[in-house]
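pasting for ref
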Amino acid sequence: HYITDAEKSGYSYIYNGNSWEKKAGINWRHNLQGTQWAEGQKRNHAVVHVSWNDACAFCAWLTKITDKIFRLPTEAEWEAATGWEPNSKQRTIYCGSNYIELVANYNGSHNTDFGSIGTKRPYEELYDMSGNVWEWCLDTYDAGYYSELNNGRVDNLNPKGPQRDGQKVIRGGSALNDASRCRVTARSFNNKEYCDGSGGFRVVMLEKK
């Protein structure tokens, strides 16, 4: 019975083929363009039109109904899941590859089925970390946070992000973005209540309760 931010506000942003458009009545039941999913389609596509608040509420619900703990990944955890390490010679530009065509749906892959999951090569059994849809992270965004890491002023082994409230980090890029926005190092952000047709999330599972 949870009511999402898009349902509360009565709208979300859809992509009309040329630009973003605010449209009434759009929520997680709809795709990028604002068309309602057919029942079978929802299982094969990333859920979009969900805010950071919605994603956290979903994690809290999963935690409640299972014997495990779920939450959004920190920005550091999200990066680690892509295999990218700052000092590693094995790191790749995209998740699991230096060739975006192998691992990501992006605006050069000619995939007209936006948000379809598992169509590219996985990395460590994880699909679509690069491209497809933007993914919310737990952290508050700070443009200068990585310089703080490099200066040794915060923990650079497993940083938890700035300890304050504010706009939240999104990572990974989407199928609307070019290759540069789908790099594992690319960062962006949005307000906690913001929803659009290119933004989704994935969760991390922690130890048992």
